[in-house]
Amino acid sequence: MRPIPLLILFTLLYCNVASANHPPETRVDVMHWWVSPGERNSINTIRHYLDEQGLVFHEQAVSGSGTDRFTNVLRQQVASGKPPMAAQAIGYDIRDWARSGELVNLDDIAEEQQWDEVIPFAIQHLSKYQNHWVATPINAHSTNWLWVNHEQFTRLGLTEPDTWADLITILDTAKSAGLIPIVIGHEAWEHTLLFELVAVGAGGPEFYRRTFIHLNPNAGDIEILHRIFERMSLLRKYLDPGMGERSWNEATDLIRTGKALLQAQGSWVNGEFSAHGLVPGQDFDCFRFPDTQGVMLLNSDQYIFFKNYPATPETREAVVKTLISIDLQRDLNIATGAAPARVDVPRAGFNQCGRKAINDMRATNMRRTIMGSIAMGNANPAPVKNALYEVISDHLMGRITNAQAVERVELILAESPRPTGTRQ
Ligand code: GAL
Fold it and tell me: Which residues make Cβ contacts (< 8 Å) with residue 264, sequence separation at least 6?
């Protein structure tokens, strides 16, 4: 390698320092956790749309799927006075950020573009703080899905499960055929995601809302909690030892390669399969998790904007408007596998699972059965979410009994402050 001439080296160093202090007007620093192949496709869609505006996208990817792992890095950066222009955020974390006074108020853009009219109420609830828009939603993922290897499913002569009993029959058939019946990864949010599907299936939407969103269960709900943990114990028997090692998308790979039959996961699995060129109805299927049909457990990815980033209002406005635009939301969500965060994006171009996601979002929005996902922090603030993570993981890993798990959940519900203000 030839040595770099001193003058060039100096200029490079100088420019780096200069751009760190005063980013050029077109620079857009974004922090996110989209690192899997499907998620990379989604990020590239955002980059493409910003490029078209003449904006220069600089990304910082920190894995963590919205958990503390990601939030802590962002917190440190904000505390050190170097926030990104925008960061990915989900659920109640958005309110925490707004409460800290760090976020840009987006009311003017929202009003001009009538966000109140086109964004489902359940998402608005999470994008607003004290009735002001503080986040730009980019999708409407839901967690209550089963992802299926189509070839194996057909080979075993199986049909879409309607109820819990149907699911158990399918799991038994897969086990006898030597497949991993249902595959999961190692993170607590994944365990909690499985739990929330079993919970809404066992107790129904009103139980879920009372117990896990309003944190206000009635006496009968404790019986239902017992049933839920019994069902989780039953599911444990169909999981494989590899679950302690793998990430959610490595679990998805086992479905893709036909080693496992089912994965209970969010609609980002649709994006993952699409990134590998797989087609629903041909290579994979997407079913609503049994007994949760008619409900959408929501996880909406959003972007928050930091006041303390030296962007001109015009540049920031261009980014916000790009993220909320119908065109970006169409292309982005064809890639992510989710429904768009607005109800007026045409279905054309979405695959079968994407179209189903859009139809379900519109129907559940009308019926008010869109409810926040516990696992993804759309149901509760982080302390409640993290406390539930711990119990649910301890239980799934066989470290505590059903009765102990119920007792610990009861304690969390009793000790956590009930939510105030607008309600999901
Ligand atoms: C979620 C995120 C999804 C998906 C998932 C897995 O938190 O909202 O878009 O990326 O994590 O990483």
Answer: 145, 146, 147, 182, 184, 193, 194, 197, 289
CA–centroid distance, 59 to ligand 1, in Å, is: 17
pTM exceeds 0.70, yes or no: yes
Q: Distance (Å, rounded) from C-alpha 167 to C-alpha 37?
A: 29
Q: What domains lie within the chain, and their CATH numbers?
A: 6-141+298-361 (3.40.190.10), 142-297+366-415 (3.40.190.10)
Q: How far is the CA of 155 from the centre of ligand 1 (A)?
A: 31
Confidence band of 422 (pLDDT split at 50, 70, 90)? low
Instruction: Please work out whether the CB of residue 93 comes within 6 Å of at least one atom of ligand 1.
Output: no
Cβ neighbours of residue 296 closer than 8 Å, sequence gap 6 or more = 140, 142, 144, 360, 361, 364, 369, 370, 371
Stretch 280-289: mean pLDDT, rounded?
98
Average pLDDT over residues 143-171: 98
Cα 64 to ligand 1 centre (Å)? 9
Question: What is the average per-residue pLDDT within 132-137?
Answer: 98
User: For a substitution probing ligand 1, which of 35, 36, 39, 196 has the most ligand atoms within 8 Å of its CB?
Assistant: 39
Is the C-beta atom of 190 inside 6 A of ligand 1?
A: no
